[in-house]
Design goal:
single chain; alpha+beta; Butyryl-CoA Dehydrogenase, subunit A, domain 3; 2 domains; 6-stranded mixed sheet; 8% strand; globular
Length: 663
C-alpha cells in the first residue's frame, strides 16, 4: 500500500463501507453486487491477454463478440438462479461492470437494452409470448434500427418505408434513398440477426407515421444476410469501437403483418388502421434508455473521479512554498477544484437517476391502466436530465483527465476511453440540443397553464409559486440556492416566452418564431433542469442522512452544498440578472466554495473508497486501490508489442539506410 494513501485513509472521518451500502441500497445489495462482480471478473476467459488499444479494428470486434457471448451465457446462468433482473443487466452491460469486461463497447448490448424492452413495451401479449421467449433464451440476437444516415433525433423525418400489401398480408420494407439507410445501431454490422426497424407505415395509400417492425436480417443457421437486406459496419469512431455499429438498407423485404408491433397502433388484415389513444404511448423505450444514461453518467464519473483522486493523493509535484518538500498535488486548491465538484456531480446524478428510475416505473405502471397524465412530465424531465448529465459527465471526465497531467493522456489510464464512451451519450438517444427543446415545449405549456390558472405537475409547480414573488433574500444555505436557481429558470422561461410571443405578434409563423427563440429556450430548459437536480439531490440527501451516522451525514451534506455552490458559480451572471443577487453575495458564495473544498479534502480518498469500484473495473494504474502508480505504469508499458524485441525490424528497413545515406 502506498504510504500517502494509507495516511489518507487513516485521516478519513467516516466509514467508507457505510457509504458503499447507501449507494448500493443496503448491505445485502452490496454483497449481491460483489458476488456478481466476482462471477464475471474472475472468469479467465473474460481477461484481456492484449490491451485493447493494441488491437486492430477487426480484432477489437472479434474480441468484443467473443467476450459478449461469454457474458450472455453467464447472464443466462444468473437468470436460472433468479438473479437476472433488468436492473442487473444494465449494470452488467453498462457503465460499471460491463465497461470492465468490454472496455470499448459491447456488440450485443442493444439486445437487452433496446430490443427486448421494445418488445415488452410495444408488443401485444401474443407478440411478447413469441418474441420475448426467443430473445430471452438467446435463440435470436436483436438490435434496434431507428436512426438513419440522413435523420437521427428527428424521427418523424425517417425515410424507410413499410407498405402494407393486403393480398399477402405482408409489409414491404424499402430504403428509397441512400439517406434512408439505417445507420448507427449497435451490433447491426455483423452481430444481430433480427432488428426492431422503425419505418413510415403506409396502408391503403396513406402514411400513418413511424411504427416498429420485427425484421429478420440474417439466416439463423448461416448468418448470411437475407435477400433484399444490405448490411455492414460503419467503421471506426472516437470510442465504442467494439460496438459493431452498422448500416442497413432494404429492397422489397417482406415481413408478415404479425411482425408489426401492435400493442398501441394496429393494422387489420384488410389494411385498415386503428390508432392508439395517445401517440405518447410509444415513448417508453426511449425514456427507458435515457433513464439508464443518467445513471451511467454518474457511474462513469465515479470511475474517473476515483482514478483522479487516488492519483492526486499519490503524486507529488511542485512546491507550495519555495524550499519546502513537494506536496501531494491534491493539496493544491486548484487541483481540489478540478476534482471535488466532479465527486459532487457523481452523487447528484446518482440521486437524480434514482428519482427518475422510480418515476419511470410508476408512470409505466400507470400507463398499463390507461393513465397518461404524468407521461409528458416524465418525458420532459428525462430529456433534460439526459442532456445535462451526459454533457456534464463528458466535460467532468475531461477535467479529471487533465487533472492527471501527462499520465492521464495515456490509454492505459482508462480516462481517454472513458471519455470516448461518455461523450457518445451526448448524441445518441436524442441529441442534447433537441432534447432541451423537447423539454422547452413542456415548459412553455406549463408556463401558460400557470398563468391561466390550470393544473401544474410537481416539477414545474414553482412557475406558479414565483409568479408574484419578488427577489429572494440571500442566505448561505442550499434551500436558498434552490430558490435562486428556480428564480433563474423562471426568469429565463418567462423571457423566452415573451420574445416568442413578440415574434408571433409581428406576424411571424409560430414554428419560425420558435426557431428564432431556440437559443433562449434551450438555456431555459437547462436552467430548469439544474434547479431540479440541486433540489432532488438536497431532498434525497436530507432523507438519507436520517438513517446514516452523523459522520457520513455531514460528508453527504458537504457534497450537496458543493454541488449547489458550484452550480451557482457556473451561472453567476444569471443570478445577478434574475435572482437579485449582489456582488457581495457572490463573494460570500466564492468563500463558501473554498471552505467546502477544505472541508472535503480529508475525506476525498474515503469518498472514492466508498464507491467501492473494483480495480479491474477501474482498469487504471493511476487509480488502483494500493496506489502503486509508477510500478503499475511501468508494467503497462511492457505490454506494448513494440517492447517484445529490443530492435524493431523497421530499423533495418528504414532507419539504418537513412543514417547511412550521408544526407
Amino acid at each position: 500500500m502506498n504510504e500517502d494513501l494509507r495516511r489518507e485513509r487513516e485521516r478519513c472521518t467516516f466509514n467508507p463501507q457505510e457509504l458503499t451500502h447507501l449507494l448500493d441500497g443496503g448491505k445485502e445489495k452490496t454483497e449481491e453486487r460483489k458476488q456478481r462482480e466476482k462471477f464475471f471478473l474472475e472468469d479467465p476467459e473474460l481477461k484481456y491477454t492484449t490491451p485493447p488499444e493494441y488491437l486492430s479494428h477487426k480484432e477489437k470486434y472479434e474480441e468484443g463478440l467473443k467476450k459478449a457471448c461469454i457474458i450472455f451465457k453467464k447472464v443466462q446462468e444468473l437468470q436460472a438462479e433468479g438473479k437476472g433482473g433488468m436492473e442487473n443487466f444494465r449494470e452488467i452491460l453498462g457503465g460499471q461492470l460491463g465497461s470492465a469486461v468490454l472496455k470499448d463497447g459491447n456488440p450485443l448490448t442493444l439486445h437487452y437494452v433496446m430490443f427486448i424492452p421494445t418488445l415488452m413495451g410495444q408488443g401485444t401479449i401474443e407478440q411478447q409470448a413469441h418474441w420475448i421467449s426467443r430473445a430471452w433464451n438467446l435463440e435470436i440476437i436483436g438490435t434496434y434500427a431507428q436512426t438513419e444516415l440522413g435523420h437521427g433525433t428527428f424521427i418523424r423525418g425517417l425515410e424507410t418505408t413499410a407498405t402494407y400489401d393486403p393480398k399477402t398480408e405482408e409489409f414491404v420494407l424499402n430504403s428509397p434513398t441512400l439517406t434512408s439507410y439505417k445507420w448507427w445501431p449497435g451490433g447491426l454490422g455483423h452481430s444481430a440477426n433480427y432488428a426492431i426497424v422503425v419505418a413510415q407505415l403506409y396502408t391503403n395509400g396513406k402514411c400513418h407515421g413511424i411504427h416498429p417492425f420485427v425484421v429478420q436480417l440474417r439466416d439463423e443457421e448461416t448468418h448470411q444476410p437475407l435477400p433484399g437486406i444490405i448490411i455492414g459496419e460503419i467503421g471506426c469512431k472516437l470510442g465504442m469501437n467494439a460496438t459493431n455499429n452498422g448500416y442497413l438498407g432494404f429492397k422489397n423485404v417482406r415481413v408478415p403483418r404479425e411482425q408489426m408491433l401492435m400493442k398501441n397502433n394496429k393494422v387489420m388484415p384488410d389494411g385498415s388502421y386503428i390508432k392508439a389513444p395517445s401517440s405518447k404511448l410509444t415513448y417508453g423505450t426511449m425514456i427507458f434508455v435515457r433513464v439508464a444514461i443518467v445513471q451511467d453518467a454518474g457511474r462513469y464519473l465515479r470511475k474517473a473521479a476515483t482514478i483522479a483522486t487516488r492519483y492526486s493523493a499519490v503524486r507529488h509535484q511542485s512546491q507550495i512554498k519555495e524550499g519546502a518538500p513537494e506536496p501531494q498535488i491534491i493539496d493544491f486548491v486548484t487541483q481540489q477544484f478540478k476534482i471535488f465538484p466532479q465527486l459532487a456531480s457523481a452523487f447528484a446524478f446518482h440521486f437524480a437517476g434514482s428519482w427518475l428510475w422510480d418515476m419511470y416505473n410508476n408512470v409505466t405502471s400507470e400507463l398499463e391502466t390507461g393513465k397518461l397524465d404524468r407521461l409528458p412530465e416524465l418525458h420532459a424531465i428525462a430529456c433534460c436530465l439526459k442532456a445535462v448529465s451526459s454533457a456534464d459527465a463528458a466535460k467532468g471526465i475531461e477535467i479529471l483527465r487533465l487533472a492527471c497531467g501527462g499520465h492521464g493522456y495515456m490509454a492505459c489510464s482508462n480516462l481517454p476511453i472513458t471519455y470516448g464512451l461518455v461523450t457518445a451519450m451526448e448524441t445518441y438517444e436524442g441529441e442534447n440540443t433537441v432534447l432541451y427543446l423537447q423539454t422547452a415545449r413542456f415548459l412553455v405549456k406549463s408556463w401558460q397553464s400557470a398563468h391561466n390558472g390550470g393544473q401544474l405537475q410537481p416539477t414545474v409547480q414553482y412557475l406558479r409559486d414565483l409568479m408574484k414573488n419578488g427577489n429572494i433574500r440571500f442566505e448561505k444555505n442550499v434551500p436558498w440556492a434552490i430558490q435562486a436557481l428556480k428564480k433563474v429558470a423562471y426568469g429565463k422561461i418567462d423571457l423566452a416566452i415573451r420574445h416568442l410571443n413578440e415574434r408571433t405578434k409581428k406576424g411571424m409563423e409560430y414554428d419560425y418564431a420558435w426557431n428564432e427563440t431556440s437559443l433562449e429556450l434551450t438555456v431555459a430548459s437547462e436552467a430548469h433542469c439544474r434547479a431540479f437536480i440541486v433540489e432532488t439531490f438536497y431532498n434525497l440527501v436530507v432523507e438519507a442522512v436520517k438513517n446514516t451516522s452523523p459522520q457520513l451525514g455531514k460528508v453527504l451534506l458537504d457534497l450537496c452544498d458543493l454541488y449547489a455552490v458550484n452550480t451557482l458559480l457556473r451561472n453567476y451572471g444569471d443570478l445577478l440578472r434574475f435572482a437579485g443577487m449582489s456582488s457581495n453575495d457572490l463573494e460570500v458564495i466564492q468563500t463558501w466554495l473554498e471552505e467546502l473544498l477544505k472541508t472535503i479534502r480529508p475525506n476525498a480518498v474515503g469518498i472514492v473508497d466508498g464507491f467501492d469500484i473494483h480495480d479491474d473495473i477501474l482498469s487504471s494504474p493511476l487509480g488502483a486501490f494500493d496506489g502503486n502508480v509508477y510500478e503499475r505504469l511501468f508494467e503497462e508499458a511492457q505490454k506494448s508489442p513494440l517492447n517484445k524485441v529490443p530492435v524493431n525490424e523497421s530499423f533495418a528497413k528504414y532507419l539504418k539506410p537513412l543514417l547511412k545515406s550521408n544526407l
